[in-house]
Design a protein that fits this description.
This is Secreted protein. The protein has 253 residues and is mainly alpha-helical. The protein is built from ten helices and no strands.
Amino acid sequence: MSTGVIIVLIVIVAAVLVVAAVLALRARGPQHGGSLKRRFGPEYDRAVVRHDGDTKAAERELSERVRRHGSLHTRPLEPAERERFEARWTAAQERFVDSPREAVGEADRLLAELAGARGYPDGAQYEEQLAALSVHHAHHVDGYRRVHRVTHAQAQTHTAGAGSGGAGTAAASDTEELREALVAARALFEQLVRPGRHDDGRPGTGARVAPDPAAASGPASAPGSAPASTPASEPAARAPHGWSLGKRRPKES
């Protein structure tokens, strides 16, 4: 075989290898994006929206989150710790009927402390803690984001209202926003307070839940009247996880 033929064969083989490498890289791109989308779910969509539809930029951000926090090892709670967190959450739920703003603020603080106790970044580093939680609890982390956002927005509004002589009682629309945020945050609380699929492959059992007085009495019950029974055929009236908060306006001060 002549030298010229050998050179031509080498060039052809090199060209084939280059084309194969390019095709492999192109194939890896969509697969990597698809993997991130499966892992992050709703967080992937939020990242895309935050980057004005730029999926590459969103995927770079999410990949960086995985790089920083993907190998994070959480620690289980001691039984006494778990009981304290569950008792505080139950108290926040019960407090919501009369003091929704304070109850949601307590939920915000409680999730920050609980995540820190489980081994996530400290709650004082909110953005970093949220990023770490999004890697391991992507489908539930938005509840924490909502109570944190609403808590700080309500605190600023309340401060401005107090400075101008405004009333401290939440409006009905504000109360509904607080209620929805607290309901959404409960899913992450359940994931963190007890072992779930992320921790040991088994579904979490969830926290003990105190009955909601407003939900139990029903909207038509007058104060002091006997609680009306809730028909078993109305599951849509209950919030996820078998728990709902009443929409009753808090007492006027």
